[in-house]
């Protein structure tokens, strides 16, 4: 476990400067002889997978979708129809390359040069591992895991990806967003001094609920409602709030040494909401004594907030995914205000840069480290709130708690199942926390 220690993360701080752009090392061509077509496979045919495929085609490169995989036939069919209608002959996916089931990803990966991994994040470690094993470039959505063994699997696969010079981009798209890149460069260059505190937020009304249908197995029900089960989602502090947590780590140029906090099921308490909390508030403490406060919640009918703010020895900063970025000095004088005019769409930009590198046969991107460590920060935050304990980074990373089912099959049972009333167990600090650490 030595290479996961925080002191080693600090040595790798240069990888925190946004998208991890490498030295554009040449790689062997991914293309078939006499062709410049980049063949892609979509693994996970939900809304995010559909969107990622749109973004890939917006890259401007000569791309064809040649394979699709999903656990559900209806998801695959719906996404295929949407993409075929929009992109026509660029969607070259005959029935023989439409794969359905838990192992469908293995076949789809074989058919492509680049894979888009957009399933629920609980599957990300095994899918990423398989893609790297097969020698494929990767775009994978955030977060990259839901538990600490999954993080270790992703980091191990990342080492192999480096050896094979495989480009990897993680869907933390703020890393490719112009206002964040420009503002954080200035912060790290010392424009406002040393960052001593911050606040990061993802406060929203929550997401969809899909009612249980007759004859659904428990596995299918949880898969359809993946957002509410930790083995699939990681809770929303990991699945959504990882974006803002990643900004805190990026601004600091390091990772916290300890995390503490609180959370609960305050409003979304019924059986439709599985086992997850609807609110978290944590403190990220870094080795220089600075503390970033992190808050996320799913409350309906109240004020929403998704942004980041930081205070430093010579000023302060405000950042937002809505293309805002402002830096002030200690007297409130404006040092920098980002001009959003003409800024590219960040979701498209991450694909544009990835596919440009692949088209030029360059090894230019390795996002796995910051994707994994910011995901890990969220996981440790979840554990801190579930247990009511202060969790130290170097202790948490030894956890062997694996949330995934023992068997992936429609008639198999996940580790968390409902009682006779249909209610799911959930973490109560100081009581039933053995499933979480």
UniProtKB/TrEMBL annotation:
One of its GO terms (molecular function) is nucleotide binding. PROSITE patterns: TAT (PS51318). Residues 38-164 form the Gfo/Idh/MocA-like oxidoreductase N-terminal domain. Gene3D superfamilies: Dihydrodipicolinate Reductase, domain 2 (3.30.360.10), NAD(P)-binding Rossmann-like Domain (3.40.50.720). InterPro entries: Gfo/Idh/MocA-like_OxRdtase_N, Gfo/Idh/MocA_oxidrdct_glycsds, GFO_IDH_MocA-like_dom, NAD(P)-bd_dom_sf, TAT_signal, TAT_signal_bac_arc. SUPFAM superfamilies: Glyceraldehyde-3-phosphate dehydrogenase-like, C-terminal domain, NAD(P)-binding Rossmann-fold domains. Residues 180-297 form the GFO/IDH/MocA-like oxidoreductase domain. This is Dehydrogenase. It comes from Sphingobacterium gobiense.
